């Protein structure tokens, strides 16, 4: 995130983009794109700033629009309109210093602990896996202390009768972790969702819902390394019960699939349907700024009626871009990378190229480069790079020489930045 922000603040830098904009005027759009692309099997798409006139929506969906304020997602019918607050949060590996004055989000560990401080009644957590103590992997190092503090805080809250419900993926990659046994012994309800058996994948979402009104959503698993060793990005949304209760419906789909002998339902119960989606986003104020927002999910069998699918959300963000699309991803594979044999799958790659060529949108890509990077990725990046031609107004930037202090980049000529290791 920080590397990404720096690129943003330095449009004339090594990745100079003909149409790059200043940070201040375009932050909101960046946020929208980033949110939609970065967050695994669940994402939040947000557009801050001027929103299209409501009239359009009446034309498109008169009934649903007319109903929105009163039907809105439970809880607060007739109550005051949510006045939400959104804070970007991030973590940067401890050994990766940035120049003084670099833009930065609120530290993830601090945001998590503050969110737990706010909890009074309930916490729901979806995470691929849990590993909050260094002990899990035989490490005794100060960099695991923040994760351990989060675990202790959760135990304290359970002791204070705050309910904790956890949905996590089964089988888990963190086989030595005792976190969930410890929490369950203190009253937490835990469901292991057998995603591999059900859909041949994993539960990859990472989010929290606190008191049905605050939300954390990001790339970070419940892992101490996410707080000190890995680049992560996320958002905390405070005081936003409409969005929180919509996210709770997604949590309930996981909860249902984690029940004993659960099968993937043909149709999901009606109370898990949503009216908040791409066509009909939540409209509210975030820090006073008129904002639209919705949650998308994937894969499609896990999307009850009305839920926008992740792919559609990401495509909508790319296709809606007028000036730029900046993306920060761990891998860039226009192929079915996890299926064998791999198949070409150029849907997002095409959308980026179309944005650059058809609409003169400036496309920038940051891709992780680390020990586990598969060199098979590089030809895809070179291809995208070759597509750019500044003098023809096709602006595509795939950085080629950014080096990360303390890391060898010789094997990674195409874009080097530490990024979320959340798929690990
Ligand atoms: C961890 O290391 C510290 C000193 O570095 C030591 O005091 C402590 O006992 C160690 N803890 C464990 C569980 O080994
Ligand atoms: C804990 O919560 C339950 C249900 O919310 C309630 O019935 C019970 O009285 C609470 N106990 C304490 C000690 O607050
Ligand atoms: C949420 O709203 C309440 C009152 O409406 C306010 O007291 C509180 O500070 C807000 N919380 C945050 C985290 O903004
Ligand atoms: C949906 O209904 C079931 C039971 O009918 C209930 O347990 C669950 O909490 C409801 N979910 C939501 C999000 O309201
Ligand atoms: C880039 O575009 C310009 C103008 O259309 C063209 O003259 C030039 O040959 C192009 N460069 C490459 C490498 O295709």
Summarize the model shown.
Residues 199-226 form the PLD phosphodiesterase domain. Helices cover 32% and strands 20% of the residues.
Give a written overview of the molecule:
With 424 residues, the chain is an alpha/beta fold. It contains 13 helices and 17 strands. Helix 12 (347-359) links the parallel strand 15 and strand 16 (362-367). Helix 2 (23-38) runs antiparallel to helix 11 and helix 3 packs across helix 4. The two termini are 18 Å apart. Bound molecules: 2-acetamido-2-deoxy-beta-D-glucopyranose (5 copies).
Number of strands: 17
Describe the largest sheet.
Answer: 12 strands, mixed
The domain tally reads 2
Oligomer: single chain
Write down the overall geometry: globular
**Low-pLDDT runs:** 1-40, 49-80, 401-424
- CATH architecture designation of the largest domain: 2-Layer Sandwich
Return the string of H and E elements: HHEHHEEHEEHEHEHEEEHEHEEEHEHEHE
CATH class of the largest domain: Alpha Beta
In CATH, what is the homologous superfamily of the largest domain?
Answer: Endonuclease Chain A
Spell out which ligands are present: 2-acetamido-2-deoxy-beta-D-glucopyranose
Using the CA coordinates, give the radius of gyration: 21 Å
Helix/strand-derived category reads alpha/beta
Strand content: 15-25%
Q: Treating each run of at least 4 consecutive H or I residues as one helix, how many helices?
A: 13
GO biological process, one term: hematopoietic progenitor cell differentiation
Family: Belongs to the phospholipase D family.
Biased composition (Polar residues): 408-424
Region (Disordered): 405-424
